[in-house]
Design brief:
Aspartate Aminotransferase, domain 1; about 400 residues; Aspartate Aminotransferase, domain 2; binds 4'-deoxy-4'-aminopyridoxal-5'-phosphate; 4-stranded antiparallel β-sheet; 2 domains
């Protein structure tokens, strides 16, 4: 077969493999100290508990259902679990009709892109933002409007009423954001929610890192301040295992119904098998003891990396000091281009993700993202020292 046999759609043809991805290919080699990947630590995977759950299901009458096709909306007990979780935590009044189980929250982003974006649709994003959201939304050709952000996250004062009115939705990650590790302050959450209500703005609240709060001190979500204006995305990737591909969308019934139609066309439903396993694992409150262990593990790594940055980086370099999550965002002096730095760093067996990929508009060239949870401490120290020497 040759490519002259077919013509890719305009949408597929427009997809480019990025130069950065090419450089990062080498980061899978064992000698490379990679701060690039956004993977959770495999030490956080509850392997024995999952094994037990599989055995329990397979030995029970549920085995047939776990291996059968299921409803597009998801496994009912799991949807109930999600509705209860959010109701208790955010004082909402959800029923299972407000919940759709998805194949990872990445699928939710894609379904939302399909549901809400036509060519030229205005989409508000914080700056920088999650690359995977930009990749999926961009397929549907939105016009992005970036809202300035600082150490406290997205700044609602920088979002004008006109912008809020003219956009179809705002996409935001209030907790320990990817890529910066920032958390939106409570005051800003309230302000943003008020602005959304006033301007009839829909907010897509993406929250895969909310539980990874090192102090276990969660701030109320946007959905608790503006339930009618918020579609909330949750994920089991960072609290159970990403290979299970399990996430959920919580939103107005009418919105969920539309996503169900789109999801049915995409993959019929999220695997019954993983939904049953996850529910078996979590139904008796297991996460209450499991999540604190992940928090502790990540907190220690984060503090260690921050200490190495303090020790080795020149005074001209700034970085975020996350209170949760998996990422630190580093700002280099203006004249340093982090993509060029990556090419040099990779030759010294160190990798990170250059910041420019995380901007929807006006990319900043002097930033980079460091992921710390999968790298052992001695390699964190070695890697940061190499990076600091290159920057100097
Ligand atoms: N949103 C954000 C902000 C993320 O960082 C990620 C994963 N890195 C996702 C969504 C997708 O997560 P998943 O599909 O595994 O639930």
């Amino acid at each position: 077969m040759t490519s002259s046999m077919w013509q890719f759609s305009k949408r597929a043809a427009a997809l480019k493999s990025s130069a950065i991805r090419e450089i990062l290919k080498v980061t899978e080699l064992p000698d490379v100290i990679s701060f690039a990947g956004g993977l959770p630590s495999p030490n956080s995977f509850p392997i024995a508990k999952i094994k037990q759950a599989v055995d329990d299901i397979m030995d029970s009458d549920e085995s047939f259902n776990a291996l059968q096709y299921g409803p597009t909306e998801g496994y009912k007990p799991l949807r109930e679990w999600v509705a209860n979780l959010i109701n208790q935590r955010e004082k909402t009044h959800l029923t299972i009709d407000n919940v759709l189980i998805v194949t990872g929250s990445q699928q939710a982003l894609d379904l939302i892109g399909k549901a809400l974006i036509d060519e030229g649709t205005k989409v508000l994003v914080e700056t920088p933002t999650y690359l995977g959201a930009l990749q999926t939304f961009t397929q549907y050709e939105p016009e992005y409007v970036s809202i300035a952000s600082d150490d406290q996250g997205l700044n609602p004062d920088q979002l004008s009423d006109e912008e809020a009115k003219s956009a179809n939705f705002l996409y935001t990650i209030p907790n320990f954001q990817n890529p910066t590790g920032r958390r939106l302050s409570e005051e800003r959450r309230k302000k943003l929610a008020e602005k959304a209500k006033k301007n009839n703005l829909l907010m897509i609240e993406d929250d895969p890192y909310g539980e990874l709060d090192y102090q276990g001190h969660r701030l109320p979500s946007l959905i608790s301040f503006a339930p009618d204006n918020t579609v909330y995305l949750g994920s089991f990737s960072k609290i159970l295992a990403p290979g299970m591909r399990l996430g959920y969308v919580v939103g107005p019934v009418e919105f969920i119904r539309k996503l169900v139609q789109l999801k049915q066309a995409a993959d019929l439903h999220t695997p019954s098998y993983t939904q049953h396993i996850a529910y078996q694992v979590i139904k008796d409150g297991y996460l209450g003891s499991h999540i604190p262990k992940i928090r502790e593990l990540y907190k220690t790594r984060c503090q260690f990396m921050l200490a190495q940055l303090d020790k080795y980086m020149p005074k001209t370099v700034r970085w975020t000091k996350p209170e949760g999550g998996m990422f630190i965002w580093v700002e280099l002096p203006e004249h340093i281009n982090s993509t060029e730095l990556l090419a040099k760093a990779v030759k010294s067996n160190v990798a990170f993700v250059p910041g420019e990929t995380f901007f929807a508009t006006n990319p900043k060239k002097n930033c980079l993202r460091l992921a710390f949870v999968t790298v052992p401490e001695e390699r964190i120290e070695k890697g940061i020292k190499i990076l600091a020497d290159l920057i100097k």
